[in-house]
Amino acid sequence: MANSPAKRHYQRTLAAQEAADKTPGQLMTGATAYEQHMAMLQHDRLRLRQVQSDQGKAELKRTMLPAYGSYIEGVLERGNGAADDVVSTIMVWCFDVGAFSEGLQIADYVLKHKMTMPDRFARSTGCLVAEEIAEAALKAQRIG
User: Is pLDDT of 7 > 90?
Assistant: First the structure.
């Protein structure tokens, strides 16, 4: 029952409830689903540090992203814009793996609530989203 439909439903529902209970700008700390996903994110970021190539990192991120899906769905469903490093990081990972539809869906939530990026990102949220999309468009144009 590693990632059963029941578990995904529970994660989505718990994340939605906890996100709805937080006010904009408030930290998500103390929320069980958030804490679990932050721990998982920390572990996954350590795994990514062991990979040197950008392509290898993108492939690893692609395999990691489904584990965050239920949490992200729950937060997007009922969240009020509380500070959430998991949501903003997964948004960037979606762009990194070429999942632009999912990344833009998360970006809509992040920008709507004026959420800031985690400290390890040097750019503002709006700048990051614009540059990621522009770089992907230029790359696609070069490829044809």
Answer: no
Model-level pTM? 0.86
Collapsing DSSP to helix, strand or coil, 83 comes out as strand
Provide DSSP, the chain.
Answer: -TT-HHHHHHHHHHHHHHHHHSPTT-B-TT-HHHHHHHHHHHHHHHHHHT--SHHHHHHHHHHHGGGGHHHHHHHHHH----B-HHHHHHHHHHHHHT-HHHHHHHHHHHHHTTPPPPTT--S-HHHHHHHHHHHHHHHHHHH-
Asked if 91 and 126 touch (Cβ cutoff 8 Å), the reply is: no
Residue pLDDT, tens place only, 83-112: 899 999 999 999 999 999 999 999 999 999
Rounded CA-CA distance 58/41 in Å is: 15
Q: 3-class DSSP state for residue 27? A: strand
Q: Residues in the chain, how many?
A: 144
Mean confidence (pLDDT) of the chain? 89
pLDDT band at 1 (very low <50, low <70, confident <90, very high): very low
